[in-house]
């Protein structure tokens, strides 16, 4: 209104001032009218500018205004989300308190307890399409980066992920430790790529998912000041490829059939080989420093002894892995199995005569939810999730697993005798509620004649003996228990 009045007054003033012009020629009148219109336009622009500035400021204020996040409890998680769902944060923490006792062993296997995991993490959705996760572990009184990545989910049914995260290999490995059926994963979990810095792309459909990525070392490994490899030795970080495909031909609420196939092609980190000889072949030293070691505990973490170990395999060009997955859910009954094979490719040099080697392992287990629950399945991840009890008394589960790993490849030249093991585990789980779980495992461990722990676990020498000699082929029983708080 004020703009209109001001412009009208201006027109009146300009009109009065132009009175004598009526006696002028038509061309002079047209020119005078154009001048008046120009001045009116300028006045209008001057009046509208402050209003536009105010409007722009209001938009900026609205864009930068705080977004309210509503907090709520969702199946064991504390979640904060905006009304439109564009922003979402939730806590992801877990505490695993483990205890174990060992019976029948000839080596000195000490009973004990430990904080297996003490993790706190934050997951986020930002501006609807951006995802992020930060997960730290404080077990062993140290800080370890677990997951640290950002992702983009703006394309249909897909996710691009960059940072430190699990490479897509192995069903049990990818299943969160909060949701695994037994206290520890099977033997083959010892050699999976696990968490590494990498770039991954995954895509999924109604019954399938595919994921592949390029990976280096785990976060903090490349420039570890105590490491002889990587940046500390002046060598480039090697990169590897990892991929996985899963398909669920049967996919119902409480009936699932899962099939999966995964593969890797990895290269070893290059360590530092020192020598006093200036004439030694530098290229051969680099080849010798390409070291790979495969080893495993006896499916218990309280005991740090590793009975299975190939030792340091030098002159390794690369190693390839392939894994097959089979899982089924039929109401409260579940079956899961995996087979994995690792092929080590050696470098041929005139200095050393080494052979390629192959190792394999597998596991299979069956579980029964006594109280009628079933294992939930995610197609987009090709994984199983959290069991939510139906009753106030919680949910009860019984499980039986067979697991084996063979690190022997006894070739004529350069034989590897890393040992082999077979384990049978009986498990019982009590899911008190969505956050609390108590697990009990009884495991019978059967080692072959090559399996042995380090000398730190050898029997105390008797009589005039002074050398610590570990007992090979040591068989024993493990009774383990875990209390888990996941939130």
Q: What's a quick, concise take on this entry?
A:
The radius of gyration is 34 Å and the shape is globular.
Explain the layout of strands and helices.
Blueprint: H1 2-17, H2 26-63, E1 69-74, E2 77-82, E3 88-103, E4 112-126, E5 130-137, E6 144-152, E7 158-166, H3 171-174, E8 195-204, E9 208-215, E10 240-251, E11 255-266, H4 282-288, E12 295-296, E13 308-309, E14 316-330, E15 333-346, E16 357-369, E17 377-378, E18 383-384, E19 395-409, E20 416-431, E21 436-447, E22 476-486
Antiparallel strand pairs: 1-2, 2-3, 3-4, 3-22, 4-5, 5-6, 6-7, 7-8, 8-9, 9-10, 10-11, 11-14, 12-13, 14-15, 15-16, 16-19, 17-18, 19-20, 20-21, 21-22
Task: Provide a descriptive summary of the structure in words.
- This protein is mostly beta strands and about 475 residues long.
- The chain contains four helices and 22 strands.
- The protein has helices spanning about 1-15, 25-65, 170-175, 280-290; strands at about 70-75, 75-80, 90-105, 110-125, 130-135, 145-150, 160-165, 195-205, 210-215, 240-250, 255-265, 295, 310, 315-330, 335-345, 355-370, 375-380, 385, 395-410, 415-430, 435-445, 475-485.
- A hairpin with an 8-residue loop joins strand 3 and strand 4.
- The longest helix is centred in the first third of the chain and has 38 residues, at about 25-65.
- Mean pLDDT is about 85; it is low at about 1-25 and about 225-230.
